[in-house]
Specification:
By secondary structure, the chain is of the alpha+beta class. It folds into 3 domains: 25-230; 237-417; 439-486, no CATH class. The protein is built from 10 helices and 23 strands. It has a 7-stranded mixed sheet, sandwiched between helices. Strands 9, 10, 12, 13, 15, 17 and 18 form a 7-stranded mixed sheet that branches. It starts with a helix and ends in an 11-residue tail after the last strand. The relative contact order is 0.09.
Length: 497
């Protein structure tokens, strides 16, 4: 076939391949590394190799195929020959390219010889608008959480704006932090450690960030879980079913976190008693106290009401549930209304129907407190009074909820089908019997010593005469040969009327 003849097939293949690659691609990641004055101890020996190794492992551990941007940042405008953030590498993840970019991290000085200041707010804004081009993505910001040795008014305002943006910007849909203790002594300054922020811009990035912090890469890189900073009112708990206390109903959890409830009886309302555990997703916050309720919402309005349906949880109150701790022996009771069969003949053959819904586990009157000893642990890394307000926003959280996707497998009894088949079989038998009763059957019968051919219907009686004139009665049967009996002669002396 000429090349021109193959062109349509090649175009289709390219479209399918492109769609497949796009489906597998993750969100892009931007890595902003502070290189202003306070970071000086991490850019000189003996800490510099360890610092760059940490950055390389961070970038490797947080990859999901969405592309990488590595940049340093300070305060834009203080260096006449380059802007901040300053891109060192942008493209698909490649270990060699990342290592080369990290090797070019430096500690620049202004024309007056001073080290630069840091503008966290400017770096974050430019990362969203310039590096991500306002697309959803994850920004990893590596900093010692200090801005300017001189505490100038401009830098102080930038830092205030950064803290306000983290707390109040809805588009920054997810924020975590990893405090890292790395004592470092430079020529001019000494530092105790770093904070690595993971900032998700957009809901897609927030979902990817949640998956990454619970995935094997970051879990193996860092000894402690990520600090959950935002949001704190969503997914505070994870429910893991262990079974049900309702006979003939089974429950299991799929890898994506959905719960499958199999064996829900159709045709009648039912109560499902799920048993399992609840694990706190907070760190380093402790659920000091909270009331807990549950409800079920169907996503299939043609089968079930789409409003909240009744549910309950035992225990009804949580006390002192520590970060990542698990509460065992939890019962969630859900009331599911009658799920009817499909109408018509098809309903008789319907064995099951699958309905999707959401179980909402809600915490109210919630009070979060910091884990004992965590403030002292943080003080060994950074000054607590310099932390952005997002670190203390947990004090204002009074309610939170977890939404668990649920799939109900409703099974219908086969009794209506069995009854329908029995009625059909009986009707067929009656039809066959009616046909047989209305049809003459031919019998070869011996009547008065002579074999004769007689036609008679089942249960019909006919009178026939033998060759010698004697009368006989022939009565048909449903099965087998007809019965032949002689007709009794009239009693002697009886006259005919």
């Amino acid at each position: 076939m000429p090349v021109r003849g193959w062109l349509p097939f090649l175009l289709v293949f390219a479209c399918v391949l492109g769609a497949s690659v796009a489906a597998r691609a993750g969100v892009p990641s931007v890595y902003l590394v502070q290189n202003s004055g306070w970071m000086e101890p991490f850019y000189v020996e003996p800490t510099a190799p360890r610092f760059r190794a940490l950055l390389a492992r961070l970038i490797e551990a947080s990859q999901d195929g969405g592309g990488v941007t590595v940049a340093d940042f300070n305060q834009d405008g203080q260096l006449p020959d380059r802007h901040s953030p300053h891109v060192l590498y942008q493209g698909p993840y490649a270990a060699a390219a990342v290592q080369d970019a990290l090797g070019r991290l430096d500690l620049p000085r202004q024309r007056n010889g001073r080290l630069t200041d840091a503008d966290f707010n400017g770096a974050l804004v430019h990362a969203v608008t310039d590096l991500l081009r306002n697309r959803s993505g994850i920004i990893w910001l590596v900093t010692n959480n200090k801005n300017s040795p001189n505490n100038s008014q401009q830098v102080t305002q930038n830092t205030h704006d950064f803290a306000s943006r983290l707390s109040n910007t809805a588009a920054l849909a997810g924020i975590v932090a990893y405090p890292i203790r790395i004592p470092a002594q430079g020529r001019e300054y000494a530092e105790k450690g770093l904070i690595i922020y993971g900032i998700a811009y957009g809901d897609e990035a927030a979902a990817a960030l949640r998956a990454q912090v619970h995935g094997p890469g970051l879990s193996q890189l860092f000894a402690d879980p990520a600090m959950q900073l935002k949001p704190l009112d969503r997914t505070p708990l994870v429910f893991t079913p262990t079974g049900t206390a309702t006979p003939d109903i089974a429950a299991s959890r799929t890898p994506d976190g959905s719960v499958v409830i199999d064996g829900v009886p159709g045709g009648r309302a039912s109560t499902i008693d799920l048993t399992g555990s609840l694990t706190s997703q907070y760190y380093p916050q402790v659920i000091d106290e909270a009331r807990i309720t549950a409800g079920f919402r169907s996503l299939d309005g043609s089968r079930l009401p789409t409003g909240d349906l009744q549910g309950s949880v035992e225990p009804a109150v949580l006390h002192r549930l520590a970060p990542t701790d698990t509460l065992q022996d939890v019962h969630i009771r859900l009331t599911v209304p009658d799920v009817p069969r499909q109408g018509g003949l098809a309903g008789l053959f319907q064995k099951q129907v699958v309905l999707d819904g959401v179980v909402t586990i809600a915490l109210t009157d919630l009070r979060l407190v910091m884990q004992d000893g965590f403030a002292d642990k943080m003080a060994q890394i950074t000054a607590l009074d310099q932390l952005p307000s997002v670190f203390s926003d947990y004090r204002h959280v009074s309610a939170a909820e977890t939404r668990v996707p649920v799939r109900l497998v409703v099974r219908f009894s086969s009794l209506p089908l069995i009854l329908a088949l029995l009625v059909l079989a009986l009707a067929l038998l009656l039809l066959v019997a009616a046909v047989l009763l209305r049809r003459d059957r031919e019998h070869m019968l011996t009547i008065g010593g002579q074999t004769r051919r007689v036609r008679v219907r089942p249960f019909e009686t006919r009178q026939v005469s033998a060759p010698d004139g004697r009368p006989f009665k022939v009565r048909g049967t449903l099965f087998g040969r007809a019965q032949v009996k002689p007709v009794a002669a009239p009693a002697a002396g009886r006259r005919k009327p």
